[in-house]
Design a protein that fits this description.
Oligomer: single chain
Number of helices: 7
Distance between the termini: 9 Å
Order of helices and strands: HHHHHHH
Strand content: under 5%
Structural class: mainly alpha
Helix content: 55-70%
Number of strands: 0
Radius of gyration: 17 Å
Shape: globular
Largest sheet: none
Length: about 150
């Protein structure tokens, strides 16, 4: 059973990346273009306002890149940092815990993107197609880091 799950791991990670990237990009599109209900119940974020407009651009661009798996680690690092900023600057001053301060989505996005920074894009990513994650010796390092099967 464990061996079968290990074989599906890259695909599960790829699906995770696609879903997280899509959800994040939707947040940016809602804030920038007013689609999907718009920003905070309707409308758009005024162009150039700090930090809302910049956060929305990061959400749209980084979310789109993560979605297709292009520059995944870099885009995920930027997205994770933006969500950490959002949590500590906007939510955490209201209360200590995410459940109390409405910061659950910021905290979850932050940790989900941080996970992608360390795991990479998984299967079905443009990074793999273009060989962006393949450097000298990358295949050997992947074999050494492969999970142990019982």
């Amino acid at each position: 059973m464990s061996n079968r799950l290990n074989q599906g791991q890259p695909y599960a990670l790829g699906l995770f990346r696609i879903v997280i990237g899509l959800l994040f990009a939707c947040h940016g599109a809602a804030s920038l273009f007013g689609v999907l209900g718009g920003a905070m119940g309707g409308g758009t974020v005024p162009t150039g306002t700090w930090p809302g407009w910049y956060a929305a651009v990061i959400q749209l661009v980084a979310g789109g890149l993560v979605l297709v798996g292009l520059g995944t680690r870099t885009a995920a690092f930027l997205a994770s940092g933006s969500m950490a900023y959002a949590y500590f600057k906007v939510h955490q001053p209201e209360a200590l815990f995410p459940l109390q301060n409405s910061g659950e989505s910021a905290a979850l996005f932050c940790w989900a993107f941080l996970l992608l920074v360390f795991t990479g894009p998984g299967a079905l990513a443009l990074d793999r197609l273009f060989g962006a994650t393949r450097g000298a010796g990358a295949e050997q390092r992947e074999k050494q880091a492969a999970p142990v099967t019982a």
